[in-house]
């Protein structure tokens, strides 16, 4: 019998894979707790992305640009970036706080902040009121890092791919619902004059999508309050068993272990800045800046008038297209992500996914050339959009993979909050830079006709090359830490 400790003498008859060695059976996911966690998670993209279909039109209606359509990108980029600027300043503090006081209190504050800020955004009638509401949302919301930490605590090495695939699935569900809701519910007095004839809706034409997004957040808050169990071991109630958490040990945490875990949670941040941790986080930051740049450029390109090389689509059409992108991405994540990870391996999948960004960018100047040549959005542009959709869906597989690398880099579970907070801080900084950089470069390219208005896409392709190099620095195999 072959064991892990016994020597194995190779010969011509020795099988390449020992007969007695098999993969560790997968631990079942704690479905109820993860289901609640995902309901909390889906509210963030619903709230944040519901503004994307109409933000450019809102900037025009407020008269901020003085009628200059080419300058809309500057201001839209500022509004879209502010959330991530403020989040980058606070998300690490929220994540480290969750290592001390527990995950649930931090999540509660984040949900309440999102709800209030969305209502304020819908009632905004000046540029500065938009700025304040987005800043408020970013400062109070550190939930994404805490949610990833809870997912890591609810899974182990055998079901981690399934768990982190769910994060991407529900994020994409939110990217489907949010833009669809924002594009459909904006200006309700025009779409449903019988129901929304009051003068309030003419004064605040974008309040309805913001209010509906806030309702989703309120529902998530009640689910958190009544049903979600605490996952931080030092703050769990005694009845919170290991079965609920999806780990194999059935013993309660003793006093000495609790003290050790608390001291680990108070570990200086500098001691965590090792290459093992920094390399996955650097990949996540670059991935985030490219992704948010693409997500910001898509509605801006689609709403830009055709004489400037855009597609000239309406907010409702843009919302439908972004919703279709979210559906396709979510379906691939749901049906195939875990299987592809098992088949290809995390590193090779990540490298393949990030390599798709360059052709995604090349589709934009192709569509711009087509619309200028043909003068209408016809079947050729539809085919180009569909090709871009396929590439974007493959690109989306990179997120679930890099989340696995970041989680596997943690030296202990009780610094998961700090490491996810560090990762989310870097991603938030990147996402703060991305919209402003992409939209400003887009506006500059169009105003000054740099590279025929396509300079922004060339710059992003260069950054994609940097990401591909960073991907090559990831470890070939992830370490297993289920202790």
Write the layout of secondary structure elements.
Blueprint: H1 31-49, H2 55-61, H3 72-101, H4 103-122, H5 127-140, H6 143-154, H7 160-185, H8 188-191, H9 199-203, H10 207-227, H11 242-245, H12 255-265, H13 275-303, H14 315-344, H15 346-354, H16 357-374, H17 379-395, H18 397-408, H19 416-448, H20 455-472
Helix pairs in contact: 1-6, 1-7, 1-10, 2-3, 3-4, 3-5, 3-19, 4-5, 4-6, 4-10, 6-7, 6-19, 7-10, 7-14, 7-18, 13-14, 13-18, 13-19, 13-20, 14-15, 14-17, 15-18, 15-20, 16-17, 16-20, 19-20
Description:
This protein is mainly α and 483 residues long. The chain contains 20 helices and no strands. Helix 3 packs antiparallel against helix 4 (103-122), helix 3 (72-101) packs parallel to helix 5 and helix 7 runs antiparallel to helix 10. The chain is globular, with a radius of gyration of 24 Å.
Structural key phrases:
disordered N terminus; globular; 483 residues
Average pLDDT, all residues: 80
SSE ordering = HHHHHHHHHHHHHHHHHHHH
| Distance between the amino and carboxyl termini | 27 Å
Q: Work out the helicity level.
A: over 70%
What is the C-alpha radius of gyration, as a whole number of Å?
Answer: 24 Å
**Which structural category fits the helices and strands?**
mainly alpha
Task: Give the overall silhouette.
Answer: globular
- Percentage of residues in strands: under 5%
Q: If helices are DSSP runs of H or I spanning 4 or more residues, what is the number of helices?
A: 20
Low-confidence stretches: 1-22, 239-265
Largest sheet entry: none
- Number of separate strands: 0
């Amino acid at each position: 019998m072959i064991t892990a400790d016994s020597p194995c003498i190779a010969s011509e008859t020795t099988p390449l894979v020992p007969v007695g060695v098999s993969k560790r059976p997968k631990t079942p996911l704690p479905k109820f707790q993860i289901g609640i966690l995902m309901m909390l998670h889906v509210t963030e993209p619903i709230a944040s992305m519901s503004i994307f279909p109409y933000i450019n039109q809102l900037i025009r209606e407020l008269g901020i640009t003085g009628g200059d359509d080419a300058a809309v990108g500057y201001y839209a980029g500022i509004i879209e970036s502010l959330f991530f600027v403020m989040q980058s300043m606070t998300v690490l503090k929220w994540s480290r706080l969750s290592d001390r006081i527990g995950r649930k209190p931090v999540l509660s504050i984040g949900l309440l902040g999102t709800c209030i800020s969305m209502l304020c955004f819908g009632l905004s009638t000046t540029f500065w009121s938009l700025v304040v509401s987005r800043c408020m949302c970013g400062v109070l919301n550190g939930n994404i890092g805490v949610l990833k930490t809870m997912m890591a605590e609810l899974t182990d090495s055998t079901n981690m791919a399934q768990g982190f695939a769910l994060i991407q699935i529900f994020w994409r569900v939110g990217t489907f619902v949010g833009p669809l809701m924002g594009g459909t519910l904006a200006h309700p007095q025009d779409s449903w004059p019988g129901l929304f004839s009051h003068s309030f809706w003419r004064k605040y034409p974008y309040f309805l999508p913001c209010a509906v997004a806030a309702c989703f957040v309120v529902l998530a808050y009640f689910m958190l309050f009544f049903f979600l169990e605490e996952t931080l071991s030092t703050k769990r109630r005694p009845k919170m068993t290991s079965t609920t958490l999806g780990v194999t040990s059935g013993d309660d945490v003793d006093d000495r272990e609790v003290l050790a875990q608390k001291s680990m949670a108070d570990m200086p941040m500098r001691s965590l800045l090792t290459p093992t941790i920094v390399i996955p986080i650097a990949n996540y930051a670059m991935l985030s800046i490219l992704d948010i740049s693409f997500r910001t450029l898509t509605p801006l390109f689609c709403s830009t008038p055709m004489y400037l090389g855009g597609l000239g689509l309406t907010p409702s059409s843009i919302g439908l297209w972004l919703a279709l992108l979210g559906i396709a991405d979510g379906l691939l994540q749901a049906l195939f992500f875990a299987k592809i990870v098992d088949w290809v391996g995390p590193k090779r999948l990540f490298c393949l996914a990030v390599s798709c960004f360059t052709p995604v960018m090349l589709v934009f100047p192709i569509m711009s050339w087509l619309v200028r040549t043909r003068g209408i959005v016809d079947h050729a542009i539809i085919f180009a959009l569909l090709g871009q959709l396929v590439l974007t869906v493959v690109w989306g597989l990179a997120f679930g993979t890099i989340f696995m690398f970041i989680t596997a880099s943690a030296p202990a579970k009780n610094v998961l909050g700090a490491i996810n907070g560090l990762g989310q801080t870097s991603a938030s900084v990147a996402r703060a830079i991305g919209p402003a950089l992409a939209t400003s470069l887009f506006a500059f390219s169009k105003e000054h006709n740099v590279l025929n208005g396509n300079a922004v896409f060339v710059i992003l392709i260069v950054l994609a090359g940097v990401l591909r190099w960073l991907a090559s620095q990831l470890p070939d195999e992830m370490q297993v830490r289920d202790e």
